[in-house]
Design a protein that fits this description.
15% strand; Rossmann fold; alpha/beta; five-stranded parallel β-sheet; 7 helices
Length: 172
């Protein structure tokens, strides 16, 4: 059983990737925008608890995908609510996902590509103005994955047939 976190800005290919990988996905949870940092922490705790229960109930024969996780809260939270998960709560969640041997799939195609796709559908995305979109993209582009976490950098402009990401997932 593997816990996958798909992280990246709007229009970075996360949903398209999930749709392509559906034969490898046993459960998908798509995280939205939470009204408070506390609500986000509670939701992420519930998801990790659910994952741990599934590990027990399925003997580990399960792929669990989170379309954005708690790391997104520290990117979208400051832009949307001017808050983020900090201190002991952040470290507790981080240590938990590392102990669960989660895999981060970081989706950050070039800014120009994301902007073009986002502009075509911004009315249904979380971020609706260009300057905030660029802030979010820039924060993901500069994101340093946690030490001890396996990371795959996915760029749909370079892996158009999904072969490299499928090989990576198959090797886990």
């Amino acid at each position: 059983m593997t816990l996958f976190y798909l992280e990246g800005p709007d229009a970075s290919g996360k949903t398209t990737l999930i749709n392509e990988l559906m034969s490898d996905v046993d459960l998908l949870i798509h995280n939205g925008v939470y009204s408070s940092t506390q609500e986000a922490i509670m939701e992420y705790d519930n998801q990790l608890f659910y994952y741990e229960q599934l590990m027990i109930d399925t003997s580990g024969e399960f792929n669990f995908f989170l379309d954005r996780g708690f790391m997104a809260e520290n990117i979208y939270g400051p832009v949307i609510r001017n808050t983020k998960i900090e201190g002991p709560e952040y470290m507790r969640l981080l240590n938990k996902i590392i102990s669960l041997q989660a895999v981060l799939i970081l989706c950050v195609p070039p800014l120009e590509t994301c902007l073009k796709v986002w502009n075509g559908r911004r009315e249904v995305e979380y971020i609706r103005n260009t300057s905030n979109f660029v802030k979010v993209w820039d924060m993901y582009n500069k994101l340093s994955p946690p030490l001890g976490m396996r990371v795959y950098h996915y760029d749909y402009t370079k892996d158009k047939d999904f072969s490299k990401i499928k090989e990576f997932i198959g090797d886990l």
